[in-house]
Amino acid sequence: MDSILDYLSLFGLATSAFVLVTGCANMVLMAVLWVLYLSLVNVGQIWYSFGWESQLLETGFLGIFLCPLWTLSRLPWHTPPSSIVIWGFRWLIFRIMLGAGLIKIRGDRCWRELTCMDYHYETQPVPNPIAYFMHRSPWWFHQFETLVNHFIELVVPFFLFLGRRMCIVHGLLQILFQVLLIISGNLSFLNWLTIVPSIACFDDVSLGFLFSSKRGGVKERVAQMQLKEAAGEQLPLRYGCYVRKVVNISFGLLIAYLSIPVVLNLLNSRQVMNTSFNPLRIVNTYGAFGSITKERTEVVLQGTSSLDPNDPAAVWEEYDFKCKPGDLKRRPCFITPYHYRLDWLMWFAAFQTYEQNEWIIHLAGKLLAQEEATLSLMATNPFAGRAPPRWIRGEHFKYKFSRPGGKHASEGRWWIRKRIGPYFPPVNLQGLKKFYEDRNWPYPVRD
Fold first, then answer.
1. pLDDT band at 40 (very low <50, low <70, confident <90, very high)
2. pTM (2 d.p.)
3. Averaged pLDDT score across all residues of the chain
4. CA neighbor of 427 nearest in space, from 373, 375, 360, 327
5. pLDDT band with cut points at 50, 70 and 90 for residue 238
6. Does residue 371 surpass a pLDDT of 70?
7. For residue 324, which of 190, 419, 417, 404 has the smallest C-alpha distance?
8. What pairs with residue 318 in β-bridges?
9. Cα–Cα distance between 97 and 112 in angstroms, integer?
10. ∠ CA(429), CA(349), CA(133), 5° rounding?
11. Which strand (E) or helix (H) includes residue 303?
12. Can you tell me the distance from the alpha carbon of 294 to that of 123, in angstroms, rounded to the nearest whole number?
């Protein structure tokens, strides 16, 4: 199974690289990419349960209809993008932003009291170094940030329907907003992906500066096409063009039909976010940070070679993850748009219980067996080159940013932490055997 997933990923990577490098795509290639990612999401379970998985699938589905059926050309003369598809992208960015704004206003009261940003930088899933300094901004600046957030998410989306100029302003503001989010946090590829439908807010004139003016280039060819169209010259329509028109109209009707439960959800005071109402995830609901955690808690995994885990003399050594806070002296990482899925899931697990996250016990078993594939997901293995640990436990800590220029920062610490208590008790490989059998999980074998 692992090799099949690897082959699917490599095939998708090669196909998307071809589209990126050549600037050419057709419906067939885009449909292949969409089916491949839909397959990964459907089998990925909790590891592919993030809201931007559905957003990528919806964006990719719209991209299928943006392209000609067979032609591989950077500027297909006979099949210009349909205005229905362009409005499909605009409808997507409208729902993304309005959904995010409404879930905040209806959710945590700190969004209404303009205090959420007092906590966000420190408690977001995977903070970066800039968040460390942004967290110490004055209270009035955090309130200003919150007001700007509400304006961008609740007011600006309606600019889409106020004519060309306001539509362009909408695109500029949304892209700028996403860039600011990219700078201040490691929110995976979410913000990069949200920029894509915002590009549909611009027309050829406003995007012309991005293309070369050299003779025979795309810019000149577009200008020639527009001149011919203005002069009343039209290329003879092929049979495929009529088929394409029928497909585009059918596409528009499909999006409108699938949008009904999504719109009803937006209007509902009990709005849900990041939910799909159809198995293909074509039209979905979106939202982010409807509630803000006021304190940051972390689960720290520790192993020991001691025979008795309750022995006060037992030495417990910590596993560090690739990006999430652990080692107090390790600088927060800057990793966007890459997505460390395990680190994100550990963030969610920290404000739940291990009974709600059985996968973390599964992870502990694999670390006990020192499985190479699992260890590759970790930043450090304290038992490298030694016998595997006999026991692993999870400890629960409260983490806070140190104060820049303060005592802890002068000692090289980015974080301060305080133990809350045990997260899950010490477990060993033999003791987990029944746990694995009851869930039909393959029992870890030491490499």
1. very high
2. 0.92
3. 92
4. 360
5. low
6. yes
7. 417
8. 302
9. 17
10. 125
11. strand 296-304
12. 7
Q: Which residue has the tokens 């490691």?
A: 186
On whether the CB atoms of residues 390 and 383 are closer than 8 A, the answer is no
**Is the Cβ–Cβ distance between 161 and 317 less than 8 Å?**
no
Counts of helices then strands in the chain (DSSP H, E): 18, 4
Q: How far is 277 from 280, CA to CA, in rounded Å? A: 9
> HSE-up of 48 (CA within 13 Å, CB side)?
14
Residues 152, 306: Cα–Cα separation, whole Å? 55
pLDDT grade for 236, boundaries at 50, 70 and 90? low
Mean pLDDT within 233-250: 74
Using the Cα atoms of residue 163, residue 168, residue 170 and residue 171 in order, give the sign of their dihedral.
positive
**Cβ(42)–Cβ(83) under 8 Å?**
no
> Would you give the distance in Å from CA 101 to the centre of its chain?
17
Q: How far apart are CA 180 and CA 187, in angstroms?
A: 11
Q: At 169, phi and psi to the nearest 5? A: -60, -40
Secondary structure of residue 444 in the 3-state scheme: coil
Residue 153's pLDDT band, with cuts at 50, 70 and 90, is very high
Output the CA angle 280-74-163, nearest 5 degrees: 70
Give the pLDDT band of residue 239 (cuts 50, 70, 90).
low
Cβ-in-10-Å burial (0-12, 13-18, 19+) of 306 comes to middle
Burial of 329 (0-12, 13-18, 19+ CB in 10 A): exposed
Q: How far apart are the first and last CA of the chain?
A: 19
Residues 53, 41 contacting (CB under 8 angstroms): yes
Residue 62 to residues 40, 51, 99, 134: CA-CA distances in angstroms? 19, 17, 19, 36
Q: Which band of pLDDT confidence, cut at 50, 70 and 90, is reported for residue 233?
A: low
Q: Which two tokens stand for residue 369?
A: 């067996």
| Cα 50 to Cα 281: distance, rounded to the nearest angstrom | 13
CA torsion angle for 65, 68, 74, 75 (degrees, to 10)?
-110
Cα separation of 397 and 360, whole Å?
16
Least confident range of 236-240, 257-261, 315-319, 406-410: 236-240
Question: For residues 170 and 353, what is the distance between their CA atoms, to the nearest angstrom?
Answer: 42
Tell me which residue of 399, 397, 398 sits closest to 422, measured CA to CA: 397
DSSP annotation of 363: H
